[in-house]
Write a structure and sequence with these properties.
Strand content: 25-35%
Distance between the termini: 53 Å
Number of strands: 18
Number of helices: 6
Radius of gyration: 19 Å
Length: about 300
Amino acid sequence: MDIRSLGYFVAQTDKLDEWQTYAEQVLGMMTSPAPQGGLYLKMDERPFRILVVEGEDKRYLASGWELASGQAFNDAIAQLEDKGIAWNEGSKEACEQRGVQALAIVKDPAGNSHELYWGHKSDCQRFISPQGVPQFITGDMGLGHTVLPAPNFDDTYQFLTEVMGFGLSDMFNFKPAPDAPAVRIYFMHCANPRHHSLAICEFPVPSGCVHAMVEVDSMTEVGRAHDRRIEQGVKLSATLGQHLNDKMTSFYMKTPSDFDLEYGCGGLQMDWQDHSAFEFTRVSIWGHDFSVGQQAQDSTEEVAHE
């Protein structure tokens, strides 16, 4: 498949107003009502890059992968059928809500939902951040990246590379304890320069997503978002730091749908003709203390039991 980018993702919540406040007051994105109900989060010239819908569970629902044309979409469908892989056609209502010409929904072996589409609609309306964010780094590279659970790692990785066409950027084998078996995290790219548009982790995640990432154009904007997070009382999941593999300087915070969001700047843009996949042995060059998220969770649980 010729997947161009992560065009959008879909999140679910039982309280849309929480996402609206979070988007406008913390992320610095615009919001508007979505067709068929729900909320659009706008971060560039497109009507939305994040769709939030109502439901009983707070979770990540789907990743929207953009194909270049109707022919590329038809070729993708043919490839799924040739390999005997089940898929569902998106309804007229779903296509209208997502603003696309056609939609095919397929699940990978880990149960993650992927929405293949082509022909996004554009209203040519400018992005004007309610918090003065000059721009998010999107365009042909898509909204950012997403990191999904894959407990059955080998089958999922094979599906994503051999069926969906993702290429391996690099690998990290995480050891939760010195004597524990390694947990694999693989980072993958598609047909754009962003270091990775997708990653998979060898463990289950109740919310359906480890984290999603959005990128701004300067460290100043990362710092301002961090200040807004504090002002709005949003839980920190990992401190400010710089990753080793994609060089992103970022922090992590909890979303209203219970998965994390990485807010960063300075991510690598790659020439895939001149890249060798490698294994890195530490997550970050500096910072990114993920224990703060666990400490916050432990404190909440202690209060709940008092």
